[in-house]
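To assess whether ligand presence alters the predicted conformation, the chain was also submitted together with nicotinamide-adenine-dinucleotide. Input:
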Amino acid sequence: MSYNLLKGKRGIIFGALDEKSIAWKVAQQAHQEGAQFTLTNTALALRMGTINQLAEECNAKIIAADVTVMEDLENLFKESQEILGGKLDFILHSVGMSPNVRKKRPYTDLNYEFYQKTLDISAMSLHKVLQTAMKQDALNEWASVVALTYIAAQRTFPDYSDMAEAKAMLESIVRSFGYHYGSAKKVRVNSISQSPTATTAGSGVGGFDSFIDYAERMSPLGNASAEECASYTIALFSDLTKKVTMQNLFHDGGFSSTGVSTLVMEKFGI
Ligand SMILES: NC(=O)c1ccc[n+]([C@@H]2O[C@H](COP(=O)([O-])OP(=O)(O)OC[C@H]3O[C@@H](n4cnc5c(N)ncnc54)[C@H](O)[C@@H]3O)[C@@H](O)[C@H]2O)c1
């Protein structure tokens, strides 16, 4: 169902790799709601993934950019404004990667070069995106920026490894930049803390299948799907949430507020 919530709005969507990606679902729903946007990912991801299919469906142009490289971001913002015909109203930061997780390094034996990459790709990149947008004055007043995060920023999940620190840093950048961009230009910056979701990034975390089952049993409403995450993101991009900023918003079926659930107790035969 479409409500035309993003009619006339322009944006950039980072992180659509394949049809499981949360960013993919956001792009589909943003298109249905009347938005125009560019899609971006690394040159490698553009070759490996299936983003062309999405671009065709959404009538969107694809611009390659590594989110850690300032020149790529400068070019992305410049080109996006040219293609879309004006300043932007929304940005989705749906990017995360840990070489330590990918190479299965235990948390107590991390490679520190990898660690820096994790932080750069998964957290500092949000600062780079916002700083580039601000310097180019690329966002309209009341524009909305959404980044995706996970509850491992607040509580320990052993296999989430150095991504936990990356998410804590990401959420801090949401608050800090949200303050500065809000005061200067009325731009909103928020993060959505999403349930575990079966995507390429999600499934890379050790024990993911058991973990997603545990989260499902712990959440009174069940895990939130990628499509539901996209709907929440669209609400945050829309004018219906104009005064929401600098927030970390849990979108997890109640997981974050649950101590233990009957379904989990039953699993232990209690
Ligand atoms: N899947 C989950 O369980 C879950 C839960 C909570 C939060 N998240 C977050 O949601 C976001 C999207 O992940 P997803 O689950 O859709 O998985 P995904 O693998 O589909 O998306 C991750 C994206 O990051 C991109 N990326 C990696 N390095 C990059 C770089 N240097 N420059 C630009 N892009 C780069 C990848 O190409 C990919 O498109 C991530 O921030 C992730 O941490 C995921």
